[in-house]
Design goal:
single chain; 71 residues; mainly alpha; 4 helices; 55% helix; 0% strand; elongated
Length: 71
């Protein structure tokens, strides 16, 4: 199986609309599936590719205000 055949099978599989998608309809489910899968592949390859996706790497000391002992 070539990569093109694999991609075509992925698109054909994804082109079956989810209930939420079917409720609003789709002019071209194949094109919609191809776009969704292309974006998914991009996000998988580059985790920073997602819109507004910022991963913060902080320690617990940076996220929690320490409680000072009573005087």
């Amino acid at each position: 199986m070539t990569r093109e055949q694999s991609d075509q099978e992925r698109v054909a599989s994804r082109a079956h609309l989810l209930p939420e998608e079917a409720a609003v309809g789709s002019d071209d489910p194949q094109a919609q599936a191809a776009a969704i899968l292309a974006e998914s592949d991009l996000r998988e390859a580059d985790r920073n590719a997602a819109p507004d996706a910022v991963l913060e790497h902080r320690t617990s000391e940076q996220t929690v205000t320490p409680i000072e002992p009573p005087d």
